[in-house]
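# step 3/5: fold
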Amino acid sequence: MKLIKNLRYKEILSLFLKQDGSPFFNAKGIAVGVFCGCFPFFGFQTLLGLFLARVARGNLFLAVIGTWISNPFTYVPLYFFNYKVGSSLLKNSPDIIFDKNLMIEELWEKGSVFSLRLILGSALVGSFLALISGMLAFFLYRKKRKI
């Protein structure tokens, strides 16, 4: 079983490293994908990533991979963190409550405030993570090109 997992990781890494294009082209694809993946637009993150990568003239395949930053394992922590960041920037106390019934009531009563906090936090966290992932990808592909 461990061998199968290692093969999958090696195949994915191989696909990642075999991408054609300049380091900047590939880095733009990753950065755009990570940025789009930080938003809570379930089902549309990949489409948005492809669209923005096309506009930015980045690698489309890497943009799709970058959107996988949000997945079923990272949804809750990522969006909770994005909400906290948005709340702190709006100078409002983060009044998110983990009680399921209160959370649903808050969403219905204060939907626009909740959404604004989440979108603002997602934009800022997404920009930061896109910058970091883009720089890492750029240096990785530049180093690969020299070898």
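# step 4/5: annotate
Residues 22-146 form one domain.
# step 5/5: archive (pending)
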